[in-house]
Amino acid sequence: MMRITVKQSIKIFFIVEIFVLLSKFISFEFFINLQVAFLSSFFVILGSAYAHRKMVISDVENENIGYQRDFLDEVEDPHELYDDEPINEAPAEELSLKEIVQEEKKKIKTFSAKSIKKGAKAGSSVFRLIPYVFLVLGFIALKNNDLLDIAIYLPSLLVGIIAGSSSSKSVLS
Length: 173
Prior knowledge:
By secondary structure, this protein is mainly alpha-helical. The chain has one domain. Helix content is 72%, strand content 0%. It contains seven helices and no strands. The protein has helices spanning 2-22, 28-61, 71-76, 97-107, 113-123, 126-144, 150-172. It is elongated. The N and C termini lie close together (9 Å).
């Protein structure tokens, strides 16, 4: 199954690359901006998807799976203020403000060594770092050689993002 997804990614890459090469007939500046932006964003998206896939697979193999709230729930209620769980079962007259504050402080998640390690592991993957280095160095090379045209470069990033995300769907499935 992995072989099929790699073939699909390569097919998408070469189809887009043919159109990029045809842009050479417009102008060299248009071509080089499109090429660098496309390759940069394509490999950033693909590398991030692959690194995420590896991280999820390793978490599943290590049985490091816990309850996680939905993304929308975390955005709308990051501190779980609207949970259905009551704060305390005692009547309102018996509740102490001090106890409520202490219980709520316990719910707040702080940085721990485990969460920092997981974040560093996800962010420092070679599959993520190399494409970002290529993105930065490509941009600097275009700028230093007076070839950078932002009006071409920025929309060209979108081409790589679309191609990379459609390729990453085949990698993630």
